[in-house]
Write a structure and sequence with these properties.
single chain; mainly alpha; Receptor-associated Protein; 2 domains; 14 helices; elongated
């Protein structure tokens, strides 16, 4: 996967600028050098100057972007499709909207998790303060009373005192587990496992499959409009998905089609696309209106993805706040109950 150097909004603006050039009939050879001069962002300007030089040397727009190495795979593959189909202007328009939506979503998610993250840090600080400062004081009071406390309060106090060790071991184990997961995720097997989890997990799996459907649909729409048949279009656009597990599944779909299975059945058997996607593809095959079907699917899953992503981002904050509130409540009770017991003993 290519390293993302630029933000989603920077990519959206860049694609919009290229869209304007291409729609006015200016070729990449003429437009990209002019565009690189107009850009004020230092990092982006440097990248576009490199691309401009490569295009002047005779490279295609796709090859120049690929060699520069700072742009995401999805953008590169869409540029490749745009060049092959002669629809670079449409591709840039779609990419501009896509990255603008991604930028808006990133802002919503960031805003949604900011408060819970701050709350988490405060709670961790409170728990640490209680464990290392407050609880030892209770232990001294308990010893001074000679253990004269209600049995329930004694049990809770002893558990609370042991939290110091539990807290330390929890941190050590958590760091160890996170390191193991990071190392495993970098391996070939680990990447495949995590990519499969993205598709099949019950929380975000359906959402991820909708995004896949939108990306594949957008690519199919462009290639079929250019005159390519459905099978050749699918073989071209399957590279749009940056997911090893899905890539393997889509390769299997291509093989099944080559063995004589219909496109709709092969899509359905893959279990990657939502049921509606395969059903509408079958309808398109029967009616001979595959172009219209793909176009409608792209609109449906573009909107579905946007709505689902926004809905998911809005559920993050209350869910995290609820979980953190329960944890804080348990810690406070573990301190307050022994305190009540001590006060009753003194009384």
């Amino acid at each position: 996967m290519k390293k993302r150097v630029f933000s989603a909004m920077e990519l959206s603006l860049l694609c919009h600028q290229m869209e304007q050039f291409f729609k006015s009939g200016v070729s990449p050879l003429e437009g990209i050098p002019v565009l690189s001069e107009e850009i004020t962002n230092a990092r982006l300007k440097k990248s576009m100057e490199f691309i401009s030089e490569k295009i002047i040397e005779g490279m295609s727009l796709y090859q120049a972007f690929l060699e520069e190495g700072s742009f995401p795979d999805y953008m590169l593959q869409m540029i490749r499709i745009g060049e092959l189909t002669g629809k670079l202007d449409t591709v840039m328009e779609n990419l501009s909207v896509y990255y603008e939506n991604e930028s808006d979503l990133n802002k919503e998610i960031k805003n949604a998790i900011t408060y819970p993250v701050i709350l988490s840090l405060l709670i961790i600080g409170i728990i640490g303060l209680m464990i290392y400062k407050v609880i030892p004081v209770f232990d001294e009071i308990f010893q001074g009373l000679g253990g004269q406390m209600p049995k329930e309060a004694q049990v809770i106090l002893l558990f609370t005192i042991s939290l110091k060790k539990i807290f330390l071991w929890f941190l050590i184990i958590s760091v160890f587990v996170i390191l193991i997961i990071i190392i495993f995720a970098k391996t070939k097997k680990g990447k495949l496992v995590f990519d499969e989890f993205k598709v099949k997990n019950p929380v975000t799996g359906l959402l991820y499959r909708k995004v896949i459907s939108y990306r594949i649909g957008m690519g199919l729409d462009l290639t079929i409009q250019s005159g390519m048949n459905t099978i050749d279009s699918f073989n071209l656009v399957k590279g749009l998905i940056d997911n090893k597990y899905v890539a393997n599944v889509l390769e299997g779909v291509s093989q099944n089609i080559a063995n004589g299975e219909s496109f709709s059945d092969a899509i359905k058997d893959s279990k990657v696309f939502p049921e509606l996607f395969s059903r509408m593809i079958k309808t398109g095959e029967r009616t001979g209106k595959m172009n219209d079907t793909i176009k409608k699917l792209t609109r449906i899953y573009g909107k579905e993805s946007e709505i689902s992503l926004k809905r998911f981002s809005k559920t993050i904050e209350p869910a995290l706040v609820a979980i953190l509130s329960v944890i804080l409540g348990m810690v406070l009770l573990s301190v307050l109950l022994p305190l009540i017991g001590i006060m009753s003993s003194i009384g």
